[in-house]
From TrEMBL:
GO MF assignments: hydrolase activity
UniProt keyword annotation of Cell division present: no
Identification of the protein by name: Hydrolase
The family this protein is said to belong to: Belongs to the carbon-nitrogen hydrolase superfamily. NIT1/NIT2 family.
Keywords for this protein: Hydrolase
Domain CN hydrolase: 1-247
InterPro entries: C-N_Hydrolase, C-N_Hydrolase_sf, UPF0012_CS
Origin: domain of life: Bacteria
Length: 274
């Protein structure tokens, strides 16, 4: 299976409309070279541009959805289109009206949206995303012809229980879009490898380049195999990281080293004695 992780540079001065068109062109360039294309988190606005989340938020089937659906169809690829600041319409149509979410979109090669994932773990410690956006509540997997993909976003990478849930739901390839800061780049690499090893799964983690609202981004998008070996890693700037991997290695690894079968669930905390 061939994958392209497009590490987009998000810089001041480029309009959202211009960036959409530029990124769509980058996706189309993967035609014939990739089966799966992955984009980073909040590339329309910048993951740390908190003051722009509200003004740039769009409905689920807004302009980014439209442009990315067509790009996926034109390129004939499965497209994890990164995430957008989604705003639930305030039209009386359902719960959560007006709420913002950090929402990832996944499209099939015919341009159909097959999944939307609202980020569960919001970053900020009672600031920024953590207070501006609602929390998702559902794990999301997508069945591709070669593998089942589990979808996660950035800060989710620090919470292994989310990835265990994705594995329990059948995930063999864990795909993560991110806007990860340069100052914690060592954590990025370490955690991506840890999630691969403990879940015996491929990890495809796509980050951004450039600077988001004054916060330098880590770049270094990475692909890790089920044994924790790094198959490919990007540099710091904008690039399309291409890699070929064999999804069947997940089943082989889990059979040869069946650690997942030894999981002990439902452990109890002992009562404290006074």
């Amino acid at each position: 299976m061939r994958a392209s992780l497009i590490q987009i540079a998000v810089e001041e001065g480029e309009s959202v409309e211009s960036r959409r068109a530029r990124v769509a062109a980058l996706v189309r360039e993967q035609a014939g070279a990739a089966d799966l294309v992955v984009l980073p988190e909040l590339w329309t606005t910048g993951a740390f541009a908190y003051e722009r989340f509200g003004s740039e938020a769009e409905p689920l089937e807004g302009p980014t959805h439209e442009v990315m659906a067509k790009a996926a169809s034109d390129a004939g690829v499965w497209l994890h289109a990164g995430s957008i600041p989604e705003r639930v319409p305030s039209d009386g149509s359902g719960p959560g009206e007006g709420t913002l979410y950090n929402t990832s979109l996944v499209f099939s090669p015919d341009g159909e949206r097959v999944a939307a994932y609202r980020k569960i773990h919001r970053f900020g410690f009672d600031q920024g995303e953590a207070v501006l956006m609602g929390a998702g509540e559902e794990l999301v997997t997508v069945r591709l012809p070669e593998t089942t993909v589990g979808v996660a976003t950035c800060y989710d990478l620090r919470f292994p229980e989310l990835f265990r849930g994705l594995v329990d739901a059948g995930a063999e390839t864990l795909v993560l879009s991110a806007g990860w800061p340069e100052r914690r780049r060592e954590h990025w690499t370490l955690l991506a490898r840890a999630r691969a090893v403990e879940n015996q799964a491929f990890v495809l983690a796509c980050g951004t380049a450039g600077t988001h609202a004054g916060v330098p981004q880590a770049g270094h998008s990475i692909v890790v195999d089920p044994w924790g070996e790094v198959l490919a890693e990007a540099g710091a700037g904008e690039e399309a990281l291409r890699v070929e991997f064999d999804p069947s290695r997940v089943a082989t690894t889990r059979e040869q080293f069946p650690a997942l079968k030894d999981r002990v669930l439902g452990l109890r905390t002992p009562e404290r004695r006074s």
